What does this fold into?
Amino acid sequence: MNQIKIDPERQIGKINRDIFGGFAEHLGRHIYGGIYDPGSPLADENGFRKDVLAAVRRLKMPVIRYPGGNFVSGYRWRDGVGPKEQRPARVELAWQDIESNHFGTDEFVAWCRALGTEPYLVVNAGDGDMREARDWVEYCNSATGSALANMRRANGFDAPHNVKFWGIGNEVDGAWQIGHKTPDEYARTYKEFAKVMRWVDPSIKLIASVTSDFRYQPVERTQLLFEQASDLLDYLAVHWYVGNHDDDFAKYMTLSEFFEARLSAFEGAIDAMRHEMGIERPISIAVDEWNVWYRARGNSREERNNLEERYNLEDALVVAMHFNAFIRHCRSVQMANIAQIVNVIAPIFTDEEGLFLQTIFHPFELFASNCGDIALDVFWKSDTFSGGNYNGIRTLDVSATIDAAGKKLSVFVVNRSQTDAIETTVTLQSGQYKGGLRAAVVNGPDIKAENSFEQPEQVTVRESRNRAEGKDYVHVFEPHSVTALVFEI
Ligand code: AHR
It folds into this structure.
């Protein structure tokens, strides 16, 4: 029997909505031709694409990371402020391009404010130095009469930008990074950068780059950061990208185990250090780059195709499984940023005339719109499947949340069967269903279905209303679907 049992009193913890964050890098058509296209009839007076703004608003992203990514490790923020005609075009080494710098800090912050989003800036700890990093904080956040605060004013921004989140470096553990660093080199760099950035603005939250690949000493990196800079750490960042490399659906669907293992391992490393050093305040995880990315990859520009990955339904299921994992790990995961937002490994895909929503847009919107304030510790049992190295994986992948008032229960279910609808009893172990129930389902004709300009709604969301009363509600979860059941209780 397939059953989900929920006790609203069995709570894991508060969910930080920053798990619905995004990431925008200067890469391919993300900024230019995606977010920013001043010559386009679709752009507003700032050059921001209005259709893109409207689509991003639907994702309710509370925070967006910028400007990279690998890009940031060669970036000079000063190149991207001031009169546009005076901004230098630079050779960009991370993605082998020319960067016009027509979009920079002020444009990004203005774009975020137009969205109601907090900007999260990453400083260059690749070929950049601590002076440049500290100056950037001052340019953005200082209300004084300093030359840098006045530079911002002269550029049209009288009030400070008040950028709260600051990352120090990107994927410093990887040899592909400009300024790749050993664990010790990075811990030392982090401490010195963080120290002066905090002296400029003591209120900022700092994010250390720890691991983009668990083969590159994540435990040692974590340990050294704690030993050298524990008082300067707010978040430790992990990145991952996944894909259906073997074209094996069952194996792909076992990625939930990978997410659990990676988050638990990272939580363990952080908790061990906090325990050893007697640190009581939380130090959180930021999964500040995550997504499906495996097709538009490779060493040459042609192979990478500007990272214009096209997504199908099975990828949408994997995106949903990420959110289930972040909700279940809400005590440690305080931020997560899908990489990226427009055109580049992204839920939104544009051309000069418009856009379409990729399959992965829909689970993102489903979770961001229906997620409550508190994660619940759900018990569920269901049919199982085998895939990759795993046996006995439950076909349903489940999380649940409740709002602060305790009246709205959201249950998120991924049915990982390619063929079977799964009838399941959703049992409320304390309290009662009050009647109202909304079901929103992301699905499409088959697991390889994609959206495109020609067929923008192959994979989409359908909503229906139903009633649930008493303690048990029976729902049939469609094959290869993501469902949000939102109950009044
Ligand atoms: O998001 C694309 C790239 O993936 C980022 O620039 C880098 O941080 C990661 O390797």
